[in-house]
């Protein structure tokens, strides 16, 4: 059974922080062959959404209040699901929980994500809108997408 937790940086245990860093490196660096600086000085101001199964993190995202990542917008980033769990539609639940958190805690604020362009259709199905900005981020094509509520 899946459990969901949202924590501030200070609330993450050392083992949770280690596991978050491990899974981010596993997916973004190893699987996607993307060398990037993961330690961006943003974890300490983000909310961390953890999905756990048998006490192991299998999905994760960071949530930012307005202005902490993008000026005038809330943001969601580092969205990931472990490779073995991707066919279980956990990604949809993860992103929806991020949206729900933003709606409740940052009402009437547009949410911006920097989506890998290959995942644009995935985010469109959830309600994000592509506004025509495509760019390279860490060598991978990305698209700016927005959720307006």
Description:
This protein has 149 residues and is an alpha+beta fold. It has a single domain, classed as Gcn5-related N-acetyltransferase (GNAT) (Aminopeptidase, 3-Layer(aba) Sandwich), CATH 3.40.630.30. Helices cover 28% and strands 36% of the residues. The chain is built from 3 helices and 7 strands, in the order βαβββαβαββ. A 7-stranded mixed β-sheet has the order 1-2-3-4-5-7-6, sandwiched between helices. The longest helix is centred in the first third of the chain and has 18 residues. The radius of gyration is 14 Å and the shape is globular. The N and C termini lie far apart (30 Å). The model has no long low-confidence stretch (mean pLDDT 95).
The percentage of residues in β strands lies in 35-45%
The CATH topology annotation reads as Aminopeptidase
Q: Order of strands across the widest beta sheet? A: 1-2-3-4-5-7-6
Radius of gyration, rounded? Answer: 14 Å
What is the first-to-last residue Cα distance? Answer: 30 Å
CATH-level-4 superfamily name: Gcn5-related N-acetyltransferase (GNAT)
Summarize it.
With 149 residues, the protein is α+β, with helices and mostly antiparallel strands. The chain has helices at 14-31, 90-105, 120-126, and strands at 2-8, 47-53, 56-64, 74-81, 111-116, 129-137, 140-147. A hairpin with a 2-residue loop joins strand 2 (47-53) and strand 3.
């Amino acid at each position: 059974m899946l459990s969901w937790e949202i924590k501030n940086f200070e609330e993450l245990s050392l083992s949770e922080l280690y596991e978050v860093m491990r899974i981010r490196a596993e997916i973004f660096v190893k699987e996607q062959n993307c060398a990037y600086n993961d330690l961006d000085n943003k974890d300490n101001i983000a909310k961390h959404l953890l999905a756990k199964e048998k006490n192991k993190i299998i999905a994760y995202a960071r949530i930012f209040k307005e202005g902490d990542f993008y000026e005038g917008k809330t943001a969601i980033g580092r969205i990931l699901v472990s490779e073995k769990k991707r066919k279980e539609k956990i990604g949809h639940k993860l992103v929806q929980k991020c949206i729900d958190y933003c709606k409740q805690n940052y009402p009437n604020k547009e949410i911006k994500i920097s989506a890998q362009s290959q995942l644009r259709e995935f985010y469109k199905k959830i309600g994000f809108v592509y506004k025509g900005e495509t760019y390279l981020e860490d060598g991978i094509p990305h698209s700016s997408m927005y959720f307006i509520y």
